[in-house]
Amino acid sequence: MILAFLLVWTFLSASSIKFALISAAAEMVSIPAGPFTMGSDTGPADERPAHRVELLAFAIDPTPVTNAQFAAFLNAAGPMNAAGERLYDVDDGDARIHQRGGKWVADPGFENHPVVEVSWFGARDYCAWAGKRLPTEAEWEKAARGTDGRKYPWGNSPPDQTRAQFSAGWNQTASVEKFPNGASPYGVLDLAGNAWEWVSSAYLPYPYKATDGREDLKAGPVRGTRGGGHDSPAEELTTTQRGRTLSRNFRSGHHNIGFRCAR
109 in a domain, yes or no? Predict the structure, then answer.
């Protein structure tokens, strides 16, 4: 009887998590189909040239994945997948998810902060588990920039502490909903600062072409990261910044890289 109860409870718990994720999917932000300008002719070399990219309609999470959300995934999948790929650096001092009482839980006070120390594999696998996928680099930039070529998600005004978390100390992330003034033209939050974000695309030169192999999920080694982190200077918060000097081995997690999902 006890065993049967535990099995039912486990099933219902897993179902509840999945139901919550499905419900959250309805809250994803819809980005319409159409062209936008990707890249910049005035920024660093890896942002050049500015070029027109046509995208189909897609949806993207309004905020990055949080420590609490990723903890639920770790409880379902563990910190390593069947292929032996490390999903989360559980032994890193910057990790904000730990095991307590046999369960993975977010550290108190960090539940709603963007998860960091997630490898690119972990970001990819979390999105698949949630019935989603990582956004492409082009999708991420359109969600942040819109179609008017803005320099920052909120427009062309310089960054300040009401719009983004930046120039902060080591691991000083903030709640993912703290900066409504930093929303993109579509209402997507936290696309500048707080945590860089993994994208599905390999880090290859522009112009962006989805058919040139950069969207092969087995390609690599280096993957794209966008948006700037909590420890980034203001100049790294632009919608075209690709993090060319960022430490981002895709096999491991990093103290300033998180992610969000798309569909």
Answer: yes
Residue 151 lies in a domain: yes
Tokens 């062309």, residue located: 156
Average pLDDT over residues 171-185: 97
- Around Cβ 123, how many Cβ atoms within 10 Å? 28
7: pLDDT strictly greater than 50: no
Is residue 263 assigned to a domain? no
Q: How far is Cα 197 from Cα 127, in angstroms, rounded to an integer?
A: 13
pTM comes to 0.90
Domain count, the chain: 1
> How far apart are alpha carbons 261 and 61 in whole angstroms?
6
Which distant-in-sequence residues (6+ apart) come within 8 Å of 188 by Cβ? 29, 60, 62, 143, 144, 153
Q: Which domain holds residue 84?
A: 2-258
Q: Are 195 and 254 in contact (CB under 8 A)?
A: no
Assess whether pLDDT exceeds 80 at residue 258. Answer: yes
Q: What is the CA radius of gyration of the chain?
A: 18
Determine contact, residues 188/205, Cβ cutoff 8 Å: no
d(CA 251, CA 254) in angstroms, rounded, equals 10
**181, two tokens:** 């003034």
Rounded Cα distance between 155 and 158, Å, is: 9
Q: Which amino acid type is present at position 158?
A: P
CATH for 113: 3.90.1580.10
163: closest CA among 126, 192, 204? 192
Token pair belonging to 71? 């903890």
For residue 226, list its beta bridge partners. 197
Residues 144 and 207 sit within 8 Å (Cβ to Cβ): no
